[in-house]
Amino acid sequence: MRNVILVSMDYRRPQDGKTSLGIASIAAALTHAGVPVTVIDETINAPHFCQDKVLNRVQHAIEAAGSDCLVGFGVFVWNEPEVQYLISHLGVRKDVRIVLGGPQISYMPNGGLEQAYPEADVFVRGQGERAMVQLALDGDVQGCGVHLASTPDRGLKADHDLNELPSPYLEGTIELASEIRWETQRGCPFKCSFCQHREPGNRLKNQLIGQSRLEQELQLFVQAGVKRISVLDPIFHANTDHAVQLLNTMKRLGLKAQLSLQCRFEMVTSAFLDALDGLNVQLEFGLQTVIPEECRAIGRPNHMGIVKQMIAELHRRGIDFEVSLIYGLPHQTLDSFKASLNWCERQAVPRVRAWPLMLLRGTPLYEQKDQFGFIESTDQRIPIVVASNSFTEAEYNAMAALAASKE
Fold first, then answer.
1. What is the pTM of this model?
2. Domains of the chain and CATH, by start
3. pLDDT tens-digit profile of 304-313?
């Protein structure tokens, strides 16, 4: 058995809590399997973040863990340079095996991993819980999305039942706070070309976490007096029966926390809205744009008649909600972005939040940079599109100013 060190360098907001849900879930799987695990948590956007401090913490953890331990990193667009720095220093050690996972690994094309991360020994595409357990126990990694360096890369992704995974909350690998993040499922049935949820969700045998585990977690949240729960599901009510049963369980348990739920207008049903009654909810609808040409370019069709009817129904029921848009989309102009904002204003949307377009590895838009003439920022931790064939950087700045005025 190998000891495991998990290194988390997350970009966090105040409501995100101390430990990321992904790292905590992997730690829970290891703990449940009896594998000794150490979690090193750092907030990469904190004012005093220092990569040398993280390196020092990791090296001390390696000394404590002993030889032949595993050091796992979650690699994201916001921490790529820091991961590269850390593994370049750790890769010279003979007493560790470096394991990389996360979106930057999952969405790397076949054959590109060793070139991008020459110091790494193992790569995990998709869910990392079972892979880390099997690697620590020298078990069978079939179906775990594992690629070993210097072997043929078949581009496999993890494919296993979510109900096999222990809860990070029930295992105690994530610290309860007044504001937490939670998941009831993984994956998304849609294929928006800007989103990384699109591919792994198609491969999961069971996207839903079982009601029994979720009820136990909810009981814990009620007992701890959690004030806000941000649900990470791409579409919370993608399975209406699952969502309604869970909402009714929340009411039965007396949950008082504010619930932030990501939703899609076209999938809302009366049964879902009825089940919200009596709960403190805030629905978040990702509309992205109301312009048909822009919708087609990102594979995100919006049925605007249904959207308009649903907004009216939300107003009628007095349900709090917000709508999010994206600026920097293909074919978008300053005027078309204004048109999306104005449409939301005419519908009396309570809050409109607009976010800049990010080109994430493995998404179709990432591969279409040249086609749309995308130019990305170079002075930000997370690069964003600041110009394209359809808008200039000055027009982007005007869109950014409009978005900021809505906050």
1. 0.91
2. 4-148 (3.40.50.280), 178-405 (3.20.20.70)
3. 999 999 999 9
